Amino acid sequence: MNARLSALGAGLLFGIGLWLSGMANPRKVLDFLDVAGNWDPSLLLVMGGAVAVTLAAFRPVAKWPRPLLAPQFVLPALKEIDAPLVIGAAVFGLGWGIGGYCPGPALTALANLSVEPFVFVAAMVAGGLLESVTHRQGR
Amino acid sequence: MENFTPVPALAGGVLIGLASVWLLAANGRIAGISNILHGLFARAPGDLAWRAWFIAGLIAAGFLWHALGLAPAPRSGFGLGWAAAAGLLVGYGTRMSNGCTSGHGVCGLGRLSLRSLAAVVVFMLTGGIAVYVVRHLIGVAS
Q1: Which residue of B101, B114, B132, B140 is the best one to mutate when testing the A interface, meaning the one whose CB has the most A CBs within 10 A?
Q2: Cross-strand pairs, A105
Q3: Which of B87, B97, B100 sits opposite A123 (nearest CB)?
């Protein structure tokens, strides 16, 4: 299998996980974040199930000499809890709590073929570009 | 809590985790959706293909779910202005902090990254604040 087909398959499986778990439904995500409303704890189990798998497998896999289909692992080098991390996460959370979409669910919700996810995704790309032109100096 | 769906939530979460391990084991990459997306607009041309294919798979999953008749009815009546504002904040914030629910949440926590743990705590907190303000104080149906 080549690397592109592998990336396609990983994306497909990731997306199926989002739909099965309910995360592709922004109302369900907001019901999780809405602890003062009709709280839905399901997303704790989505995160728990996903992290249980990555906790078990990531560190052993990252010790392999190389990935199966690529020359090397590309892992985040940043370790510091700095201002861009905290401010960026805070801004992301605000958007998540307003719309109910984080990036993965928004992309796979494009398949709804309704206007809302297209508007969200276009704005999300624009927001990323805006950040890269306003905040990249010295980084 | 009648909307609590523990079994599909847990099963879907496991699939998300397996997909993340797959991308790391085969492609050597972190399945952080925001970084995969933003990188499409930033990186060297040689780095684009796997990103585009992963996102194509992600979107294809949505079409598959619809074809199987399993997708819930899309939300209607949520203002597009709110959707645009939310998208801008999500795009700006995830690029600034180098990650989202998947990169910092699923993958970062799996790597035992304190940086990612800090990000998760912060975005859960501000997410909760935002939904409280928008749903309960402003009264937007979302």
Answers
A1: B101
A2: none
A3: B87
B40 three-class SS? coil
Where along chain A do its domains lie? Answer: 3-134
Instruction: Using an 8 Å CB-CB cutoff, list chain A residues near B61.
Output: 11-16, 18-19, 108, 111
- In whole angstroms, give the CA distance from residue A29 to residue A33: 6
CB contact under 8 A, B80 and A116: yes
Question: Which of B91, B107, B118 is opposite residue A125, by nearest beta carbon?
Answer: B91
Measuring CA to CA, which residue among A82, A61, A21, A101 is closest to residue B72? A21
**Total beta-carbon pairs less than 8 A apart between chain A and chain B:** 510
The interface predicted TM-score of the complex, written ipTM, equals 0.97
pLDDT score of A95 more than 70: yes
Q: Give the least confident one: A11-25, A107-121, B1-15, B35-49.
A: B35-49
The C-alpha angle A102, A107, A112, rounded to 5 degrees, equals 115
pLDDT in tens, B100-131: 999 999 999 999 999 999 999 999 999 999 99
Which among B90, B96, B115 is the nearest to A102, CB-wise?
B90
**Of the candidates B118, B125, B126, which has an alpha carbon nearest to the alpha carbon of residue B98?**
B118
Tell me what the mean pLDDT of segment A50-72 comes to. 97
CB contact under 8 A, A119 and B124: no
